[in-house]
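Review form for a predicted model. The reviewer records the input and the model, then writes brief findings.
Reviewer: anonymous (R2)
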Amino acid sequence: MQRVRFWSVDPRVREIVNNVADAVIAIDARGNIELFNPVAERLFGYASEEVMGHNIKLLAAPDYSRHHDEYIARYLETDDPHIIGTGREVEGRRKDGTVFPIYLSVGEVKVAEFHGFIGIIHDLTEQKEAEKLLLNARTYLQDIIDSIPSILVGVDQKGIITHWNHFAAAERDMDIREGVGQPLVKLFPFLEAQLGDISHAIRERHPVRKERLPLQNGGSSRVIDLAVYPLSSAEGLGGVVRIDDVTERVRIEEMMVQTEKMMSVGGLAAGMAHEINNPLGIIAQSCQNLVRRLSDDIPKNREVANNVGLDLGAMRRYMTERGLSQFIAGMQEATERAALIVTEMLAYSRRGTSSFVPTPLSELVETVLHLASHDYDVKKNYDFRRITIERDYDTRSDLISCEALAIEQVLLNVLKNAAQAMAGNPHQTCPTITLRLRDEEQWLRLEVIDNGPGMSAEVRHRLFEPFFTTKPVGMGTGLGLAVAYFIVTEQHHGRLEVESTPGMGSKFTLRLPRHEEY
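Model under review:
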């Protein structure tokens, strides 16, 4: 029996398939090629007479070729349409052996006595190249935004996240794919107060920038810069939210401002100290001479008193009755206090000239704690014995190169400040100072943490200014912490910082260059 060829059933079929835009290939039930249109010739590189009668596996990539006969046999036996009546992406093989992507749609054909299959094949090479370029572009764009050390979040007009970079994902400890579709304020709740400005910026297509926004997260505080950039596309509303953590930068700026203040008044302090010293010396010497010349224990005083007819005993009783002795004693005490202020001013204004030696910081801390617990002036205002001292030392080495007496002065001033602050809190039930010693790269970091009343931002910003004090008149000179700041930053090239929130205590952080042992 002569085999019926597909194209011979109706000659019009051949004319139709020769003019379609995709490759059309017909095979019989055994998989042999019966029809191969001109597009198929161009696509696969074969002339139709080269493939006619050959098995279709000639045109299939190895992975698909191995299973092709199995697919046809299974269908003919079971009617399981694994590939029949459906479309799928597979790979074809050209005459030169190159493999390329195609989209294959297979249908069953029963015409007269012919039973076979027809495949319509669309070349996906350009589409795949375009997809690859698009993927590369997306990857490149993602790399660009991931390389920006800021939190970048794309949102639509409803505040839903459409895209974000890995810094944003890391902020929430999430995979970068998990945030898309989530509300912005759900993942970044600290932006809830700024949501109105973000929506306004997107709606009005006007950028918005806000700097130094304070954030509270539990017991820690952060400062951020916020910027909202609306999308310029007219197709839809949306924007990019950029968040930069500027906490460290703000602290450095504050430290620089503080250092400038210290430097600007350094020369003034030195000049004032020398100018005050001269009249102060005269007053102190005059008070001393008054006491000496009113004493009846000195022969010369008795001689002069007899010559002028003066009874020294009566005069002394008069001075006692009128309180003149107390006046003179008060003058002497005031000059001593003024002399102490002058000494502190000079200590503030001059650079250290003493030799620096390696010293364990923990030993200096223990020495200062011992001094503070026995110092009369300390005990007069507060009792160090009522304060719980908690030590948390964890360092590989706590050696610093320093002038020991100067650092002891710094530590004493910081500890006294903490103790006085807690003593001024009438509701304090268990005053505690925590001393935490840690390694920090080239620094040795000492934290002095109290659970006192804390301080406002205004007080914190001015704390290291010379002559600034929150204590009552006569209780402080306002130079203790200023001198401590100068000793640390100027003489020892370290850092002295303070963090505090009203009602949550204060933390002084002292960073000193460690002494490296070789």
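Findings: The first strand starts at residue 23 and ends at 28.
Further findings: Residues 427 and 453 are 9 Å apart (CA to CA).
Recommendation: see findings above.
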